[in-house]
Amino acid sequence: MAYVTKATSKGGRAGRAHLEGNALSLAMGLPKEMGGNGEGHNPEQLFAIGYAACFNQAVLALAKKHGLDGQSAEVSCTVTIDKDETSFGLKADMSLKIPGAEKDKVQALLEDAHKICPYSKATRGNIPVTLTVV
Prior knowledge:
Strand content: 25-35%
Pfam family, one: OsmC
Shape: globular
Family: Belongs to the OsmC/Ohr family.
Strand order of the largest sheet: 1-2-3
Helix content: 25-40%
Radius of gyration: 17 Å
Number of strands: 6
Order of helices and strands: EEEHEEHHE
CATH superfamily of the largest domain: K homology (KH) domain
Number of helices: 3
InterPro entries: KH_dom-like_a/b, OHR, OsmC/Ohr_fam, OsmC/Ohrsf
GO biological process, one term: response to oxidative stress
CATH architecture of the largest domain: 2-Layer Sandwich
Protein name: Organic hydroperoxide resistance protein OhrB
CATH topology of the largest domain: GMP Synthetase, Chain A, domain 3
């Protein structure tokens, strides 16, 4: 086992969530778009941050193979929650920007990173994920 972390939530989307040892503790809040006051954080924001950072690490690991500078890579993750057939569903849009790089090389890197990123593996077949070169 390489690493384990534990988060605990009380009060759901209007409560608090914290990491074990209180290394991070956040007030949670329902977004205005979903009827809340927009104060606090929401699970979709936290998922977007985690996915972007994890995906960026995959880009860093593979950039040299594609002849690209991984240190200049910028990964963005947009997470959307919306009603689906049964309740609510997520989708993610991943984008990769490497200033000055050839688009086809960045596209190949983006697709390879999507193959190895643990978040991509977890979402594959479960939620729609789009990949875009910026």
